[in-house]
Design goal:
The complex is a heterodimer.
Chain A lengths: L6 H17 L14 H17 L17 H13 L7 H13 L2 H12 L5 E4 L15 E5 L2 E11 L7 E7 L10 E7 L5 E7 L5 E13 L3 E2 L5 H6 L10 H19 L1 E2 L2 E2 L4 H29 L5 H26 L17 H12 L6 H12 L6
Parallel strand pairs in A: 1-4
Antiparallel strand pairs in A: 2-3, 3-7, 4-5, 5-8, 6-7, 9-10
Helix pairs in contact in A: 1-3, 3-7, 4-5, 7-8, 7-9, 8-9, 9-10, 9-11
Chain B lengths: L6 H17 L2 H9 L6 H10 L17 H13 L6 H15 L2 H12 L5 E4 L15 E5 L2 E12 L6 E7 L7 E7 L5 E5 L8 E12 L3 E2 L5 H37 L1 E2 L2 E2 L4 H29 L5 H26 L10 H13 L4 H11 L3
Parallel strand pairs in B: 1-4
Antiparallel strand pairs in B: 2-3, 3-7, 4-5, 5-8, 6-7, 9-10
Helix pairs in contact in B: 1-4, 4-7, 5-6, 5-7, 7-8, 7-9, 7-10, 8-9, 9-10, 9-11
The chains are: A alpha+beta, B alpha+beta.
Chain lengths: 390, 374
């Protein structure tokens, strides 16, 4: 049992911190970016290129693809330090499409895409969820019908970030209608500027957007099929052994809590500093404890992975717990702001640039996206504890 | 970073589990709830033979020279089976007080006896004030010829009824922190001990000290400097208790999962219903959360690193987590889990005592808040 990181890893952590402090063009202490919003997406892209320049963007990739096969611990450190500062350590390309191409891509596909992904030259949209297929993703209905050396695609994908300037989309589409539902799905790549694609921005309650993307006779060349036809579900589920601890959640939560503690140290209500109120002290302390227990569980996921153990329930636990504690801390933040909590970014009198109000709304999404809390608990129970299917 | 056990720790864990599975059955636990002493002499002898009593003492005092991390691994196993008896109080509270504050002579005389199972010791710290802070100590020790005169009442003293010696914390000066530790023989004049009736069927007592005269040699450590030792023992006690709770909560989870797989209603195992599945998932989350925050605190204490925040966070979290795990365990078991015959209530009653020992979550959350700088 040893909670100390080795010297190299500690040094890497310092290096990352110093790099961000120096290279980040925006004040991370006071501003979070939303890579799903077009203006912010440009800034994020520029920063990702700097990360690429350091060799960090794809450091988890195998050497043969330009990475450095960084250890799980090292990946975790990068993710933790970046998340703490509100900056991305990767994207769908480096984390999903790239690894999938490494495992299942043709040589042509690898040559076409991997260098561009590594250089942060492609912005990806994720074409998974549909209006009628969320948690039950395998029920998806977007059809891809063979026509010569192309697929003709009809259907729609929702909740993705196509509107913020995505160049390409990776999607799951049904290529075989009569097969059992998981078995008729294929993994396809499409250029977003192809004819037949319509993007509709959906305003979300946190004053940002998600997209509804509709395909009307979109043509995708067969060379953009990744992996075997009708095996797309399994292609999409395959992940290279990247660290999947979810450590970014407690890291962001820690930074949020620091903001709230600072706020309490200078804000009075009814003649008393918030930080002197015993109830508030307790709530802040509870938040700190939850963050720490989550962080420790994330570290355990990384450790398990480093020992080639599969974190079946552990990763689901950290996802559910991490997203929930994040929302609870924003709730606490709203409570601390009192009347001022209602104010939105840009309003007169808004505290902390409105980050708390915005985060309070946005963090509800964290408990639903990437596997709802309910689904995570189903997974913990069935895959983790062996409880029987309902 | 290594969150696994080393070979020696794994062996300790395996051998402890094997021993306890065979020697500390729930039948034994139940029988000991009714027993006057609360444990058998045979069991105590076997525990001594396992080397558990001297695990953390240096070899020169008859121990094995292992560290607190190692002991925590053992305590996870004893917590899992609810081992009754004075192991925890003797080793961590009495023993560590002596190891931390004792003179060479005291350590050489007392620690080997503890390690061999010949001497049972406990720490008499808390009082009717029910406080974990120095201000809560109102027992007074006054200097007299050739020694000290102690007056006061101690409450919630674990296993005092079988302890040969009490390490008594008493006030010896004007300042809040002027507390000293004294070795008091249970048979000394003026000492009377009464067992309390508690929810956990553990053995906690009131000790009344009325003009108890002890010799100068009874002082443990330096005058007015007892709180440093007490703080160390409270830290070890809090995290050791967390380790026990981790073991207990894992067993509650395992027992619950097993039950819901077998119990059928509406034609299917109740473990196939989502509500039950989600209860179990929440329990698993609490158990995992408890484990690693405890290990972090235990490791920091073992390495003699600054540990205030780690200890406070661990005890705050685990105290409440174990309570939640037991609550959900009860929900999943239904009525059968409320019966005395069932093991579920053995755990939930002990969870309450463990939650309170060495400071509950409210107490430690205030420490956490202070350590955050507010």
């Amino acid at each position: 049992m040893d909670f100390k990181l080795n010297k190299e890893d500690e040094q890497f952590r310092s290096e990352v911190a110093a790099f961000v402090n120096q290279e980040l063009p925006w004040d991370w202490r006071n501003r979070s970016l939303d890579p799903d919003e077009p203006e912010d997406a440009v800034l994020v892209k520029e920063f990702k290129k700097k990360l690429a320049g350091q060799g960090w963007l794809t450091m988890a990739w195998p050497e043969e693809y330009g990475g450095s096969s960084a250890s799980h611990v090292k990946q975790m450190i990068l993710n933790e330090e970046m998340a703490y500062r509100g900056v991305p350590a990767g994207d769908a390309g480096t984390r999903m499409v790239g690894p999938i191409l490494m495992l299942y891509g043709t040589d042509e596909q690898k040559q076409e895409f991997l260098p561009k992904i590594a250089g942060a030259d492609i912005d990806w949209a994720q074409g998974y969820s549909e209006p009628d297929s969320g948690s039950d993703l395998a029920s998806l209905q977007t059809r891809a019908v063979e026509d010569g050396d192309e697929f003709v695609v009809n259907g729609s994908k929702i909740w993705n970030n196509a509107h913020s300037g995505a160049d390409w989309m990776f999607m799951l589409a049904r290529t075989e209608q009569d097969a059992p539902k998981h078995r008729g799905i294929s993994f396809l790549l499409t250029e977003m500027k192809s004819p037949g694609i319509t993007i509709e921005k959906i305003p979300m309650m946190w004053n940002a957007h998600r997209s509804l993307v509709t395909f009307e006779d979109l043509r995708i060349p067969k060379k953009n099929l990744v992996g075997e036809q009708n095996m797309g579900w399994y292609v999409g589920a395959a992940l290279l052994d990247f660290e999947r601890s979810g450590v970014d959640r407690p890291a962001r939560a820690k930074r949020l809590l620091e903001d709230l503690v600072s706020y309490c140290q200078v804000t009075k209500r009814n003649g008393r500093l918030l930080s002197d109120d015993p109830i508030i002290r307790r709530k802040l302390a509870e938040a700190a404890v939850q963050i720490e227990s989550c962080r420790m569980m994330c570290y355990n996921v990384v450790w398990m992975q480093s020992k080639e153990m599969i974190p079946n329930k552990e990763a689901s636990i950290t996802k559910a717990y991490g997203s929930e504690l994040t929302h609870h801390i924003y709730e606490l933040g709203m409570e601390l702001m009192g009347m001022h909590g209602q104010l939105e970014p840009g309003s007169k009198y808004v505290p902390l640039q409105g980050r708390i109000e915005n985060g309070f709304m946005r963090s509800r999404g964290g408990m639903v996206a990437a596997g709802t809390s309910e689904i995570q608990r189903n997974v913990i129970a069935s895959r983790g504890l062996g409880l029987p299917r309902g | 970073m290594d969150l696994g056990l080393n070979e020696a720790q794994q062996m300790l864990k395996n051998s402890a589990r094997e021993f306890l599975d065979s020697e500390c059955t729930s039948d034994y636990v139940r029988a000991m709830e009714e027993d006057e002493r609360g444990y058998t002499a045979e069991m105590w002898q076997k525990i001594a033979e396992q080397g558990w009593l001297g695990l953390m003492f240096p070899e020169e005092y008859g121990g094995f020279g292992l560290n607190f991390m190692d002991l925590s691994i053992l305590l996870e196993e004893t917590g899992r089976v609810m081992l009754p008896g004075p192991l925890f109080s003797t080793v961590l509270m009495g023993g560590m007080s002596i190891l931390n504050a004792g003179s060479e002579e005291q350590k050489k005389e007392l620690l080997p006896q503890i390690a061999e199972g010949q001497l049972i010791v406990t720490l008499a710290l808390t009082e009717p004030t029910a406080s974990w802070d120095p201000q809560g100590i109102q027992t007074v020790a006054t200097a007299v010829e050739d020694g000290w005169m102690i007056n006061g009442i101690k409450l919630f003293v674990p296993n005092a009824h079988v302890s040969d010696t009490f390490v008594v914390a008493a006030r010896t000066g004007e300042e809040d922190m002027d507390v000293s530790l004294f070795l008091v023989d249970r048979n000394a004049n003026g000492v009377s001990e009464t067992l309390l009736k508690t929810i956990a069927s553990d053995r906690q007592s009131e000790i009344v000290l009325e003009d108890v005269k002890v010799p100068s040699s009874a002082l443990l450590g330096n005058i007015n400097e007892g709180w440093g030792t007490i703080k160390r023992v409270l830290d070890l006690g809090a995290v050791g208790k967390c380790a026990e709770m981790v073991g207990g909560s894992q067993e509650v989870l395992d027992m619950t999962v097993e039950y819901v797989k077998q119990r059928t209603q509406f034609g299917r195992p109740i473990g196939s219903f989502q509500a039950i599945q989600h209860h179990c998932a929440n329990m698993a989350t609490d158990v995992e959360g408890s484990r690693y925050i405890t290990y972090q605190a235990a490791w920091h204490l073992s390495e003699d690193l600054p540990s205030d925040q780690e200890v406070a966070m661990a005890k705050a979290y685990v105290s409440d987590a174990y309570r939640r795990v037991c609550a959900l365990g009860h929900q999943c078991h239904g009525a059968i889990g409320f019966t005395k015959e069932h093991n579920m209530q053995l755990y939930s009653r002990r969870a309450k005592a463990a939650e309170l020992a060495f400071g509950d979550s409210g107490y430690h959350l205030e420490n956490v808040a202070r350590n955050l700088g507010i």
